[in-house]
């Protein structure tokens, strides 16, 4: 559910764990009037639903709001970088020896995603993975589900692309621990950009936690540059 207060939008999914789905978001840096009282009202709304209150800080947070967050000792956590690059002119994908790369259906991708996450083949999906499937099954834009397997059919790495007009969003880049440092994520990134370009995308974007040094270095090597950064401000009040 969402509550609008001018350009302030409270996104609420009681029971959900994702901060993005349970946070106060801002879309106009000039909309800072009565910041303290509006922030208090938003906090009360979250508490009424027994949902932790987080503020998503981006460059669009009004100065007045930022000042209130500082004065009320909000903790700033989980700095995330939003990176982007043009995806024209990429060549063919080189798949590391001993692996097979395939684009699969959403159902197959979810199953492989779960296994790469550590779930054994045939085990029931966790509530979190099932919720991810339910959300993705309602998406109206085109999905690109990629899987890298060993020659024996063991899922080693996954990636999900979302083509929305001329934009390609890249999500859930994950390699099973035993298969890391073999260039699998690099191969998946090259392939999703190639497929995205074929389907009309001109710009690719993704998010990465700032202290994930290996991932940041990978994306830098692929030409991704920072568009902006954001973090969450956690309510200091119990």
UniProtKB/TrEMBL annotation:
<feature type="domain" description="N-acetyltransferase">
    <location>
        <begin position="99"/>
        <end position="238"/>
    </location>
</feature>
<dbReference type="InterPro" id="IPR016181">
    <property type="entry name" value="Acyl_CoA_acyltransferase"/>
</dbReference>
<keyword id="KW-0012">Acyltransferase</keyword>
<dbReference type="GO" id="GO:0016747">
    <property type="term" value="F:acyltransferase activity, transferring groups other than amino-acyl groups"/>
</dbReference>
<dbReference type="Pfam" id="PF00583">
    <property type="entry name" value="Acetyltransf_1"/>
</dbReference>
<keyword id="KW-0808">Transferase</keyword>
<protein>
    <submittedName>
        <fullName>Putative acetyltransferase</fullName>
    </submittedName>
</protein>
<dbReference type="InterPro" id="IPR050680">
    <property type="entry name" value="YpeA/RimI_acetyltransf"/>
</dbReference>
<dbReference type="InterPro" id="IPR000182">
    <property type="entry name" value="GNAT_dom"/>
</dbReference>
């Amino acid at each position: 559910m969402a509550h609008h207060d001018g350009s302030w939008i409270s996104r609420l999914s009681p029971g959900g764990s994702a901060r993005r789905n349970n946070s106060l978001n801002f879309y106009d840096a000039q909309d800072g009037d009565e910041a303290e009282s509006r922030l208090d009202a938003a906090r009360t709304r979250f508490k009424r639903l027994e949902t932790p209150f987080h503020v998503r800080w981006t460059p669009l947070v009004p100065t007045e709001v930022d000042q209130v967050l500082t004065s009320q000792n909000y903790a700033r956590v989980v700095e995330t970088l939003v990176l982007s690059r043009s995806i024209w002119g990429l060549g063919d994908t080189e798949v590391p020896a001993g692996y097979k790369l395939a684009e699969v259906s959403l159902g197959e991708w979810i199953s492989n995603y779960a296994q790469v996450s550590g779930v054994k083949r045939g085990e029931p999906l966790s509530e979190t993975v099932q919720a991810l499937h339910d959300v993705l099954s309602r998406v109206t834009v085109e999905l690109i589900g990629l899987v890298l397997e060993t020659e024996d059919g063991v899922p080693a790495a996954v990636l999900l692309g979302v083509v929305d007009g001329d934009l390609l969003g890249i999500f859930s880049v994950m390699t099973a621990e035993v298969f890391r440092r073999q260039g699998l994520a690099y191969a998946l990134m090259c392939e999703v950009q190639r497929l995205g370009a074929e389907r009309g995308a001109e710009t690719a974007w993704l998010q990465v936690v700032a202290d994930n040094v290996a991932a940041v270095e990978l994306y830098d090597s692929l030409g991704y540059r920072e568009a902006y950064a954001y973090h969450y401000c956690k309510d200091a009040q119990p």
